[in-house]
Every structure is written in structure tokens, then in C-alpha cells.
Amino acid sequence: MVESVETAAGQRTGATGSGSRRSRPSVGQFDSLGLYLADSRIEASVLGLLETVETELRSSVASADPLVTEAARHLVEAGGKRFRPLLVALGAQFGDPTGAQVVPAAVVMELTHLATLYHDDVMDEAAVRRGAPSANSRWTNSVAILVGDYLFARAADIAADLGTEAVRLQARTFARLVHGQIAETVGPRAGDDPVQHYLHVIAEKTGSLIATSARFGGMFGGAPAAHTEALAGYGETIGLAFQLSDDLLDISSESVQSGKTPGTDLREGVPTLPVLYALASDDADAASVRLREILATGPLTDDELHAEALGLLRESPALKRARETVRSYAEDAREQLAPLPEGPARRALESLCDFVADRTS
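^ Polyprenyl synthetase family protein, sequence as received from the core. Prediction below:
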């Protein structure tokens, strides 16, 4: 789950913050996120900062043990869009992005994220991550778990140089990540609303780290406290919106857009938002009833049932409702930016809201 905003792919259709839609360019390596940087100075600042982060990531995971170094660099060198460092870089634009602590803050966030991926792959028994063999399949589950722990430790070590508040925030974010993973593993308890449970899991596992990334950008760029709080609220909400839009793309898109085979979550029995809406529906039409019957069977490993469910979901009221939910989160994220000053940095953040709403339309 937490990887989704790293691997999302799609075509940018564009929108203005006021709601009128037109094509507009995004920035090279961030095309798949629809990021729009209209100001050349901000573009140079963001890209330069991220280039430095990339260098620091590689040096920060080095160990006296060659195996640890090799395994720890495995996912660093596999790439990714560095969405969390990007949020740090954009948040810092509301203060001084050249501040000495901005890059270390971005490294802390990415190391924390990478650590969760090592652990996720063990729990999911994943064989591939970012197009390469996963660490657990290459070095065993035990090594992958320990390397994840090592990356958490390196993140905490760097955070200590940023001050007590940074350590506290990183620890609290880590606690939310763990709570989210436990909630996902245990599942909804008796009496819980499955949809609300799922949204809570996403907030804890995905939104929390993106929120702290945006907050760190404001904090260590020296932005006013009110701006930093707005950035944190925005980060959490846009993180949820991206994850939920990935749920829809798994059903509605072709593989070239989503980056994976359509219906993968269905085949694996992952209860994403459109599926949960379909299961909770009391619609009595034949298509809705049949869809609930199929989904209730669990993972759809049978090709014919899988194809039937995918077709029914694509035409279902549940998918329409899920699209409305994604748009609602995207607009909520935009509203969180209201306290921030107008300008190219705010428009860049708004462009992510535009993109996440457009990609699932």
C-alpha cells in the first residue's frame, strides 16, 4: 500500500486551481505525479535538492558490513519517484529551501519509507519490488526484516541531529505506521465499518508519513507555524487521495496506465475501496447482486470469475461512488492549502490535487 504513490503512472490532463481544465506541462521525472512547477527558480531548487538527497541516501545507508550495505542500498538504487522527499522540498519553498537541515529531513523521511517497504515485502511474501527481486526473495525474510530495522535506525540517527522535535515526530510517525499495519493485519473488528476501517489504515500507513514529510519541509525551511500545520494537513489528505486513486486504477485502467495488470487486487483478495463499497451496497439490480456474490468468495483466482467481476465493477455504482470519494479528498487537500501564500509553490501543490482527481475520472 505504502508504495503506491511511488509507482503511479498516468497521463497528465491538467487543471487549474480554479477548476477550469487545460493541458499543461509537468516536470520530467515527476510526469507520473502530474507535478507542475511553473517557476524556473522553484524547479531548480526542487530538482537540485532532490539530487542532493539522492547522494545522501546512498552514503547514509553504508555500513561496515558489506552485506548490510548491499542489502540496504538495494531499494535505494532501484529508484522511485521520491514522493516524500519531494513533499519536503515543496514544503521548504514556503521558507528557505537552502536551509542546512532541509536535505537531512528529506533523507529521514525516505529512509523511514524504505524501511517500511522491506517489512511490507516480508509480510506480503513479495517476489518483486520496483522491477527488481525483493530483498526478502534475494536475501531471506530475516535479512530483509533486519535491514528494514537498520534503515529505521539510520533515520533516527539523522533525525537526532535535527533536534528533539524531529526525533519525536519521526517516532510518532513510525508508531502510526505500525498501528496501521496491525489494523490492516487484524482486519475490522466486530461492529467496525469496513470502509472506515480501510480509510483509517490508509491514513496510518500512507497519510502519516506524507504528512510528516510536508511538515518537515515547512519546519526545516523555517516557514511560519501556521504554514507548517497547513502543509501537514495537506500531506495527509493528498496521501489518502493518491492511495484511493490507485484502488480505482487497478480496476478501471489499462496496465500501461496503472503500472500493473488490471484487477491485481481482486485476484489477490485485497479489499480496496470500490470492492468495499460494492459489498456494502444494498442495490437490488441483477448486476449489483451478482457482483456481491462473486466478491464474497474472496480472492478471485479463477480467470472467468475474475474477468466477470472486473467487468461488473467497471460499470458499477460502487466505482462511481469511489471516484466521488477520491475527488472529495483531492478537494479537501486543496482546501488545506488555504493558509499558504499564493504563488508557484502553492500552485505546485495544487497541481497534485488536480492530477489525483483527473487520473480516475
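Residues 194-221 form the longest helix (28 residues).
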